[in-house]
Amino acid sequence: MTTLVLTVVGDDRAGLVATVAEIVGAHGGNWETSALAELSGAFAGIIEVSVPATRADELREALSVLEGLLSVAVHAGAVSSGRDETGRRISLTVLGNDRTGIVHEISSALGAQGVSIERMSTETRDAAMAGGRLFEATVVARVPAGVDVADVAARIERLADDLQVDVALED
């Protein structure tokens, strides 16, 4: 089997996921992992599929018929992730007043300690009682062996006085 990673973007409308899934299935592919979202009227996603190696090019070609409906890019999946699986996996929840640059600051603080982000989702929303906007991020990351998880949380909390960080270990 060959792994392909698809990125899809287009105007949101009903049936987009079903259309992609139908093409993948019709070409012997298996939908493995995905993250899909509607953002400001656009549909965006990243999808990992496995397909028999002999049918990978056929699937690539079939997905090209979606042009106009969805922009689809097909990337070859890595044979080996090359990712260091040692260390500990953590979940971080970051909540605070929204401001420019917060994602850059969080990701830079994690990267400076060798922490690798595996998944991250963010959103902003109105602060119900206080007014203004709130920023919330959920991050799943891998902390290398030898790095103290408490130090990771403290470094993010130091980014701003108004950030709250909850850390949970995933074993």
Automatic annotation (TrEMBL):
GO biological process: regulation of DNA-templated transcription
InterPro entries, A to Z: ACT-like_dom_sf (IPR045865), ACT_dom (IPR002912), GcvR (IPR016867), UPF0237/GcvR_regulator (IPR050990)
Gene3D superfamilies associated with the record: 3.30.70.260
ACT domain: residues covered: 5-81, 91-171
Pfam families: ACT_6 (PF13740)
Protein name in UniProt: Amino acid-binding ACT protein
